[in-house]
């Protein structure tokens, strides 16, 4: 093990120079970035056109609100399955298919409108189908980015993705509005289909080599179970998910109530709403380009809390802004704070996930984000109904800062980032006969000095989380009553194939943990390992 005192005396290794636009020098990332910008522009165009179309065929507020529900519900239904598929299938091909899916839905929408067959129910169904493509696309894109950029450029790459998201938030509605006013809603979907097909063909040009596992593809149900289990057993991921949920639960109050705030300003109209949205997008883009400096200036926890506080301040100013001259700077500050917190936590999530489970982990991250936004919009909308819009925004601001302070105190990161690079430290076991279909139980027998049992138990608790993160079904540690020095670690796997998969999932951090376990074992021989098949339960 490395000497910590020596590590503090030696100068740190030189890091490559990092700039905000550095990742765009990577040809593959540049191609993916423009594809992502086009895809998100299509998303905003589709949302604007669908909502406007619904006001024409069914002007009821309920029908109009259901358009937003139809576009976001697929994230909750398909978030985890889409992440699992992105981990077990060829990510390039999967990403390409999602683009063609969105293009196909846009083409159907266009055809139905031109033929005069559109109904409110059909519009909701096609909006839901479009949301399916979006729900399937996000996890695979999140998993691809760490493949194509070096680790030291990951934060900047994700910040540039935020630039694409916020830039498309400005461009998409403007283009959709211009087309609706001049040619009609159908032509928005025509352009959407063309851009989506073009993005799909651009992805086809990417020559990514997909490495199929010699053990074959994971079953979807098993892949979903392992993804949930990894996140549940990862303290870092749990802390990140709690922070992102708290932040968006409260910050979404500003976006949910922004139309009412805009209408209440002097001269408030649709143009006022557009100016406020553009101001928020501009602030987010500016902050995204400053992320390298911000990350060097503040550690993650402080950056998240300061961002939360600034976003709350922007929301509070918006609540009582007397005119647009005050509201615009407040929206700029809110946009800067929003992208700072979102980018910081997204980078932290990416760093906490090994590649084999990255898409599943990021899909769960997305589900928490979207779920907290949906819950926050309903919560603060109801508070505004009971009281007033300014009161609701003020309450969201204060509550958000207080809760984030509590979360930061309860989930303080006390360690350094784990080394998640794959490790081949363990040899894959060979079986003499054909593979059994039953569950596999692995027993590892340790001989421990009883005087060090408490230290050993602490290390074995870490081992329990490690084994379960790798996909084990169950773990337990038994102690021999007649021999105080004998401990047996019992690990249950779903099948022999799933047992072998755990060897592919061992990281450098797991290897270091193994060395710590072995340091407690007495004797020259290593711990005895026995493998059994469970015939009956």
Concise synopsis of the structure shown:
The protein is built from 18 helices and four strands. Helix 6 runs antiparallel to helix 7 and helix 9 (235-264) packs parallel to helix 12 (300-320).
Explain what the structure shows.
The chain is globular, with a radius of gyration of 26 Å. By secondary structure, it is mostly helical. Helix 4 (91-115) runs antiparallel to helix 7 (185-204). A 4-stranded antiparallel sheet has the order 2-3-1-4. The protein has helices at residues 4-9, 27-57, 61-88, 91-115, 120-148, 154-182, 185-204, 220-233, 235-264, 270-289, 291-297, 300-320, 324-351, 358-386, 389-410, 453-470, 496-504, 508-518; strands spanning 439-447, 474-479, 486-493, 528-534.
How many β-strand stretches? 4
Strand content: 5-15%
Q: What structural category arises from helix and sheet content?
A: mainly alpha
Instruction: Indicate the radius of gyration in whole angstroms.
Output: 26 Å
3D shape = globular
Q: Which sequence of strands runs across the widest sheet?
A: 2-3-1-4
The string of secondary-structure elements, in order, is HHHHHHHHHHHHHHHEHEEHHE
What is the helix content?
Answer: over 70%
Low-confidence stretches: 1-14
Could you describe the largest sheet, including whether it forms a barrel? 4 strands, antiparallel
CA-CA gap between termini: 42 Å
pLDDT averaged residue by residue: 82
Put simply, the count of helices is 18
């Amino acid at each position: 093990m490395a000497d910590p005192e020596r590590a503090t005396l030696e100068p740190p290794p030189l890091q490559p120079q990092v700039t905000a636009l550095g990742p765009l020098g990577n040809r593959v990332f540049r191609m993916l970035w423009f594809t992502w910008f086009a895809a998100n522009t299509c998303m905003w165009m589709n949302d604007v056109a669908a909502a406007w179309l619904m006001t024409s065929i069914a002007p009821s507020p309920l029908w109009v609100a259901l358009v937003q529900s139809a576009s976001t519900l697929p994230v909750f239904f398909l978030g985890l399955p889409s992440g699992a598929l992105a981990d077990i299938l060829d990510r390039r091909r999967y990403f390409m298919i999602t683009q063609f899916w969105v293009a196909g839905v846009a083409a159907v929408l266009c055809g139905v409108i031109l033929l005069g067959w559109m109904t409110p129910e059909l519009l909701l169904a096609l909006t839901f189908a479009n949301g399916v493509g979006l729900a399937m696309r996000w996890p695979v894109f999140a998993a691809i980015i760490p493949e194509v950029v070096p680790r030291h450029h990951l934060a900047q790459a994700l910040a540039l993705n935020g630039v694409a998201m916020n830039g498309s938030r400005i461009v998409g509605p403007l283009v959709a509005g211009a087309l609706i006013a001049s040619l009609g809603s159908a032509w928005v979907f025509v352009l959407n289909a063309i851009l989506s097909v073009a993005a799909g063909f651009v992805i086809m040009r990417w020559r990514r080599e997909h490495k199929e596992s010699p053990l074959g593809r994971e079953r979807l149900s098993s892949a979903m179970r392992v993804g949930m289990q990894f996140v549940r057993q990862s303290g870092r991921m749990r802390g990140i998910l709690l922070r992102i949920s708290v932040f968006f639960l409260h910050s979404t109050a500003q976006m949910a109530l922004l139309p009412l705030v805009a209408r209440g300003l002097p001269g408030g109209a649709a143009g006022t709403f557009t100016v406020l949205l553009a101001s928020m997008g501009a602030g987010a883009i500016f902050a995204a380009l400053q992320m390298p400096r911000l990350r060097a200036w503040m550690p993650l926890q402080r950056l998240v809390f300061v961002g939360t506080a600034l976003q709350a301040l922007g929301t509070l100013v918006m609540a009582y802004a007397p005119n647009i001259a005050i509201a615009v700077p407040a929206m700029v500050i809110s946009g800067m704070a929003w992208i700072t917190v979102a980018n910081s936590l997204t980078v932290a999530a990416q760093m906490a996930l090994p590649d084999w489970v990255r898409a599943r982990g990021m899909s769960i991250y997305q589900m928490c984000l979207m779920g907290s936004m949906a819950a926050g919009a309903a919560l603060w909308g109801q508070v505004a109904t009971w009281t007033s819009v300014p009161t609701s925004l003020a309450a969201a601001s204060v509550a958000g800062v207080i809760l984030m302070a509590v979360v930061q105190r309860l989930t303080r990161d006390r360690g350094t980032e784990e080394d998640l690079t794959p490790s081949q430290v363990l040899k894959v076991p060979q079986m003499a006969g054909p593979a059994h279909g039953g569950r596999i139980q692995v027993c590892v027998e340790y001989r421990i000095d009883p005087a060090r049992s408490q230290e050993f138990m602490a290390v074995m608790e870490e081992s329990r989380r490690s084994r379960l993160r790798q996909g084990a079904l169950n773990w337990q540690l038994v102690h021999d009553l007649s021999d105080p020095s004998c401990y047996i670690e019992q690990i249950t796997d779903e099948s022999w194939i799933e047992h072998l998969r755990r060897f592919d999932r061992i990281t450098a951090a797991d290897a270091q943990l193994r060395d710590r376990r072995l340091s407690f074992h007495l004797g020259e021989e290593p711990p005895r390992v026995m493998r059994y098949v469970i015939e009956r339960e």
